[in-house]
From TrEMBL:
The keyword Coiled coil does not apply. This is Deacetylase sirtuin-type domain-containing protein. GO terms for molecular function: histone deacetylase activity, NAD-dependent; NAD+ binding. Belongs to the sirtuin family. Class I subfamily.
Length: 346
């Protein structure tokens, strides 16, 4: 019998439900921004999500890559904010959700992790790269319109050299130990700040090759941009080949995520949704052929820590898996400083 979205559930009840679910057959996992909240990266939706700000206006893909002067302004805005927001994402630590899923994966309790997140925290928690599908890309690679790649840390240094005033602000933040509040896509919000003085470097390889269009963007899927065909097809194949789907920390608002839920449900696969707050699937009924939809509104870090410990702690482990278990037990919640030193407006 599924637990309905409106039905309260205690942590012990949720532990029992999830343990039974993970013990019943191959499971593919789909994660979203809610998984990284305990690492100090806030979600887009939910009570404190970025989309709750009525003034929020995302940069669209076509705006970012437009060759016009307007496109240049959008790139200045994006890269200035990303320059400030990248260090907290770069330095973020995996939390209990990441370590719990990694431990479950290494012990064969779950299969592939499909993540909408671009923060790389599943990989840093020990999940093998081949067993993680980064559906919306990664912040740690910068790519130009001709396919040349630059490591994001290297590009961060390039941005700093071109923008010494902004670099001084970042250095001050890091020296003080303070951090600005970071969004899932690795940028921050600056009120009343002009970006007109921010210099965005062109692709150095394109410059050497004499190409005109040298526009750089992070290797992530922007609003208005399609998920790469290879990743879309692999994510669909992973859900199709597994017996059940575990959804963690996502409202399923994006179509790229919701279609994975639809694929599982339409093929009568049981689905467990672990998310606090409404999701797009809340009104989808269970069916009589095994396609149950069960929602657990409990903190995912607490639940995954307990379930991973109970299912994996006494199993034979190698050094890597033992290290993941140790980090799971010691992981804590990060609460970033909301304001750093004042950024002077120009």
């Amino acid at each position: 019998m599924p637990i309905l979205a409106s039905t309260p559930v205690s942590l012990p009840e949720a532990i029992s439900v999830l343990q039974q679910f993970l013990s019943a057959g191959p499971v593919t996992v789909l994660t979203g921004a809610g998984v990284s909240v305990d690492s100090g990266i806030r979600a887009y939706r939910g009570k404190d999500g970025r989309y709750m700000n009525p003034n929020y206006q995302p940069i669209l893909y076509q705006e970012l890559v437009a060759p016009s002067s307007i496109g240049k302004k959008f790139r200045q805005r994006y890269w200035a904010r990303s320059y400030l927001g990248y260090p907290p994402v770069r330095d973020a630590k995996p939390n209990a959700s990441h370590y719990g899923l990694s431990l479950l994966q290494r012990h064969g309790k779950i299969g592939t992790i499909i993540t909408q997140n671009v923060d790389g925290l599943h990989l840093r928690a020990g999940a093998p790269k081949k067993a993680v599908v980064e559906l919306h890309g990664t912040l740690f690679v910068v790519r130009c319109s001709h396919g040349h790649e630059i490591d994001r840390n290297e590009f961060q240094e390039m941005l700093g050299r071109e923008n010494p005033g902004w670099k001084a602000f970042v250095d001050e933040l890091e020296a003080s130990g303070q951090q600005l509040r970071t969004n899932p896509d690795g940028d921050i919000e600056l009120e009343g700040r002009s970006y007109d003085d921010f210099i965005v470097p062109a692709c150095p390889t394109c410059r050497v090759e004499g190409r005109e269009d040298r526009t750089l963007k992070p290797d992530v899927v922007f609003f208005g941009e399609s998920v790469p065909e290879e990743k879309k097809n692999r994510s669909l194949a992973e859900v199709a080949s597994s017996e059940r789907l575990l959804v963690v920390g996502t409202t399923l608002a994006t179509y790229s995520a919701y279609r994975l839920f639809q694929l599982a449900h339409n093929n009568h696969k049981p689905v467990v949704i672990l998310n606090i707050g409404p999701t797009r699937a809340d009104t989808v009924p269970s069916d009589s052929k095994g396609g149950t939809v069960t929602k657990l509104e409990v903190p995912c870090g607490e639940l995954l820590r307990e379930v991973a410990e109970r299912m994996c702690a006494n199993l034979p482990s190698d050094k890597v898996t033992t290290d993941i278990l140790s980090k799971l037990r010691s992981s804590s919640t990060a609460v970033p400083t909301l304001m750093g030193p004042e950024m002077k407006s120009s």
